[in-house]
Amino acid sequence: MAAVLEAKNLVKRYPGASVNAVDGLSLAVREGICFGLLGPNGAGKTTTIEIMEGISAANSGEVLYRGAPIGREFRERSGIQFQQTALQDHLSVREVLELFAKLYPRSTSIADLVKLCDLGEFLERDAKKLSGGQRQRVLLAVALVNDPDVVFLDEPTTGLDPQARRNFWELVCLIRDRGKTILLTTHYMEEAHELCDEVAIVDRGRVIAQGEPDRLLKEHFNGVTIELPKEDFRAPEAPLPGKVVERDGVVEVMTAEVDAALGAMIAAGSTLARLKVRPRSLEDLFLELTGRGLRE
Amino acid sequence: MISPRRFWAVFVARSKEFLRDRGALSWNLLFPLFAVFGMAFIFSGDHQEVFKIGVVGDVAALPPGFAATKYLKFVPFAAETDGQERLRHHQIDLLVAPGKPLRYWLNETSPKGYLVEKVMLGTDAGKPAPQRGVVTGRPIRYVDWLIAGLLAMNMMFSALFGVGYSIVRYRKNGVLKRLKATPLSALEFLAAQVASRLCLILGVFAIVFHGADFFLHFQRLGSLWSLYLIFTLGATCLISLGLLVAARATSEELAGGLLNLLSWPMMFLSGVWFSLEGAPRPIRLFADAFPLTHVIDAARAVMTEGATLSQVSDHLYFLVGMTVSFLAVGAWTFRWE
After folding, report:
1. Could you report the per-residue pLDDT of A48-85, keeping only the tens digit for each?
2. Do residues B118 and B31 both lie within one domain?
C-alpha cells in the first residue's frame, strides 16, 4: 500500500540546544493504518509529529502528503490531538465542537461525532468541568471534526486511569476501522502493541527500528523474559544463557534457553516462588537496541 | 482574505466566553457605575473657596481696588467668547472686560455670580457704572466633566486586559496552538478578538452612560453619535495596543506587568481625574503620547463644550494612526505559540 505521509531526513535543532531534537529522521506511513512513534520522554517524538503536522518547521528535510510537500491546505485534511491542550473557557462541549466545525470548509456531522466518541452524557457541560478521560474524548472529537484523512494523536492517554485508557483505545480502533490513517506517539508499549499496525522506535531523534510490532520482536528475539524479584535471585558463577538486566528491583533474564537458565538459577540458590515468564515486549526491544530502559 | 464564517465562529465563541464569565462582566459593568455615582456623591457639594473671575485681556488693566480684593481669583482670556463659554457653564463666576466703561457678564442662574457681582460693584470697579451683560447656561458639574474620563478608563482596562491577558493565557495553555492547527489565519483570529471586545465595550459603555445619565442628567452639549464614534475609535486603538502587548508574550506575569506599565500612567496622566492644563510642558507632552488622553480630550470637548467631530479631528486622526500602527506591528509579530 502506498505511503500517505512521509518524513524525509527531518532535522530539528532548537535555538541554544547542543544536540538535534530530531536528527535525520525518515519514515513512511501507509494509508489506513495506525502507526506508532515509540520512545522515551525526550526522544524527539513530539517534535517529529509536530513537524509532520505542519505545526513546527524543520531545519531541514521535508514532509510529503500523498507525494507532495505539505502546505496550509494539509490542515484541512488532518486532525490533531496535542499532548497538552486546553479548551476555551465557558463553552460547552457542543459549542466547542461547533466552533471548530465552522473553522473548516468541510466538517463531519456533530451528531455523528457525539455518537462515535460517546459524548452525549456531557455534551452540554462546560468543557472545563470534564474528567481526564472525557476531555481526551472531546479533544479526539475536535481532531475528527473536519473528517480528516490523517489523525495525529500525541500521547493521548498519558495521565488517564487504566479504564479510561482502554476506552480510548477502543475509540482509536473504531476510527482506524473507518479508514483513517492514525499517527500516534506513546511511551506505553502495551498501548503501541495493542493499537499499532506498524511502529517506529525513536531514540535521540532517530528511528532505530521500524516495522510491524510482532515482526520486529520476531526479528530481534527468539526467547522469553524471566523475571524474578532481586532479593529472590542468586547469580550463578557461570554466566546465564542470555542477557541479564536489573530494573526497578526486578532481575530480568532474556533468553531462548529457558530450561538451562532456570536450572542454573536453582543451582545457585534462587527462590522461584515469585518467578514470572513473559514473552518479549517492545520495551525489551528498546532495551536491546539502546541498552537503556524506556523510562530511564 | 478573511473568511466571514471562521471570523464569525471565533467572534461568537469569544463573546460567549466573556458574557458567561460573570466575574469579569460584573467588574466591567459595576466598577464604572460605582465610580460615577461615588464621584457624583463626593463632589455634590461645591468646595471652592474663592470666586473665579474671567478677565478679557490684561489682568493689570483692572481697577486696582477691585484687583486687590481678597479671595478673588482672576483668570485671563484672550477672547471674550471663550470667557463667555466658561461663564455659561459656571466654570467661572463672572467675566470682566477692563476699559472705559468697564463691561462685565454674569450667569444669572449662578448664586456665586450674584454674590461676586455685589462684591465688584462695591469696589472701584463699580464707578462709573459698568455695562452689564448676561449669559445663560446650566452648570457643568465635576461629574459631567469626569464621566468621559471614567468611561474611557474602564474601556482602557477592558481593552488591554480583556484582550491582552486572555490571549497570553490562551497561548500558555495551548488553545492558540490548537487553533493554529486549523485553517484559521492569524488575521481572522485577531480581527474576531478586536470585533468581539469592541462590541462588548460599546455595549458596556451604552449601559453605563445611559444608565447613569438617567439618574444624574449629564451635561452633554455635543452629539451623542460623535461621542460613540470617539469611544469606538478609542476602544479599537486600546484593543490594538492590548494585542500588540500579547503578540509574543508567553507569560501572564510578563503580560500583566507590561499592561500595568501602560495602564497606570494613562490612568493618572491622561486627564481621567484632573486636568493637566496647568501641568509642566514635558508632562503634557508625555501624556499626549497616550491614546487615552486623546479619547478623553475629544469626548470631554464634545460633552462639555459641544465640540463637533471636525473640532476634535486631531485627536481622531491620532487614534486612527495609532490603531493602524499597533495592529500592523501586532499582526506582524503575532505568534500562536
Report:
1. 999 999 989 999 999 999 999 998 889 999 999 988 77
2. no
